[in-house]
Amino acid sequence: MPAHLSPNPLRLAISFILSSLAVGNLQAADEASIEEVVVWGQQTRERAAASHPSSVLSQQDLVSINVATTEDVVKFEPSLVIRRRFIGDSNGTMGMRGSNMFQTSRSMVFADGVPLHYLLQSRWNGAPRWTMVSASEIAQVEVLYGPFSAEFSGNSMGGVVLIESAIPQEREFHFDSSYFSQNFNAYGFDDTVTGHKEFFSYGDKFGDTSVYFSYNRLDSESQPQTFYFGGATSSTTPTTVTGGIVGNDDRSVSRLWFGDTGMQDTQTHNYKLKIGQDIGDWQALLNIAYEDRYNGSDAPNSYLRDNSGATVWSGNVIQDGKKINVPTARLGVSEQKRDSLSLGLRLRGELTDGITLETNLNEFKILRDENRASLANPLDALYTPAGQVTDFGDTGWSSAEAKIFVDDLGVDGLGLIAGVRHDSYELNMDVYNSPDYQSAAFGNFTSRSGGETRLDGLFAQLNWAISPAWDMGLGMRWESFRSDNGYYAADKAVTPEYDLVAVPTTSRKELSPKFSLAYQASPQWRFAYAFGKAYRFPIVEELFSQYSAYNAISVANPELRPEAGRHHNFMMERQIDGGVLRVNLFQETIEDVVESQSENLPGGLSVRTFIPIDETRTRGVEFIANVDDLFIEGLDTRFNVVYTSSEIVSNQADPSIEGNVYPRMPEWRGNLLLTYHLSAQWDAGLNYQYASDSYGRNDNTDRQDGVYGAQDGFSRVGLKSTYNFTNGVALGLGIDNLTDEIAYVAHPWPGRTIYANLSYDF
To answer: Is the entire prediction scored with pTM above 0.85?
Structure first.
């Protein structure tokens, strides 16, 4: 974009305010009626919620957020971070409390009782499958922090996100469309990337049957996600080049950066069918979701030019005395095609007066997940159709759960939740060379690995309102873990077949106690303490996934023990006019931490290992203020800030890292949502996110800020305004990252992004 056309933050802010005022002049005199939203989750149960740190979001709480995808809905919640690198990113990982954004198997996400958490892979590959539920269908979100309820497995160490969608009560049609655009400038890339989203839904109720269908399309471009620097070469005849960028890496080592991945193009199609059925006092909900996803990187950038001005795509080069090697495959092109199917069935009803049964069944299947990559860039003289294919087959999970809720056990205020749950996971991954990567023709295997895990649990939790002032919770969860059918490649040249090595079966059983106690000192003051023990068992990838691809190597560890955590939370809460003030003091001590450490080598190769750390400890102080009509009528506020100290306490295998700060855990995080209701139809809002910088490595040597690979702090301001016309039409305008701050969380966060939204309900 020419410099004179580059967006100016002040100009954008003024334009935003003026457009909001212009829309305000169109305000209709009539007050908009608020439609009652019926949510399945409202019909549920007594949890130990009184002393379980939690947060609830309604549709009204989201009006100041520029929501493009589902993970946007929760990204301003306390002690929670979403690492979504761009709109449409499949790697939108989530971290909660003392679990960082890459410890994805320590948090759980459910939508209408269907698991979205992806407990097959870790780090960037372990992000929840957010796209299986569209942001436009969400009615309510509840966030539970920590493993303080026996209802959830040890994968709730960080917390649990419970998403509920609305149930159609009458005929309704909804359409919304969004356009977004950002200009991004870093290293050798300077361009504008854009995207758009279209969503349509139909719902109706025929007698006792509710029907809901939706279609969501997302088409988005991203800024480059990876920037490459070269490794040293011993070649005596390198090609002399210009255009490379000299700069430090995250450990302050001077590097010659030679290229980037270029724009990534993402298209996602989501189809959802929900059928609800009332059968007397019973309700059933069938949930079918299908995702068709494409992601392609077909225009990597090389910054290097030879003496004739021609682009250099590979080989040994020299610039200003720096000799580096550009691997042939590093600037190749790639594409991923992924099709996923999720089936869920929820059944709930009263067995007797005061006793409710709920069952949840789910099957998630990867129908196709295939990544095709070329051996060289198509513009490279060395280019041929040869490439490499990574393919997931027979991959997915199934779960089944039954639980009862007893309102009265014969003692006033004493209730029970008890149940049984089964989860089984399978992952199989093949990497093979292909003579024609575009058609995925098979050549020969380079690696194969996979396996299965199974987790069975029994749980019970008593919740007792002892008196108007005191209540207590006491729970226990028993879990049985088993890994089976694991294998990895160890090919022998003397045998004609591709040889595999079987991994021995492992099994383990653990008990996890839970306890909570709360005291209502007065109508305004409440104090609560919660304790939970939790075991997070290894996932399939950590145990079995060993592979070697062009740009990455992974080394699994089948001898991993479960992570063992002890979690405490003390809450002080003050009710005030219009809302609540809350302080949480928490501590988490985790033993046998499964640390997935990734090392970026010169040239762009990434090597990942799963190595346990003996013990880590996290202590935190969290302040939350959710207040309506703050200072002036119509101004609603959601504010939270958390201070966290996370330390590697002990590690016999490498004592040198003891006392270091645990990776990807900023000391400070804060969020602010301000919504001003100018009228019943018109909202204007401001949002703000802050995080201090952190480390990405256990040895804490990555101290350089503002470079690719760093774990930068950031300060991001956003604006949002929406006007709802009385005919069902709504118009919105928004900006994220108003100041266009470029920061890195290893990969770059998006630059300034502008949103325009249109919706219509009829």
So the answer is: yes
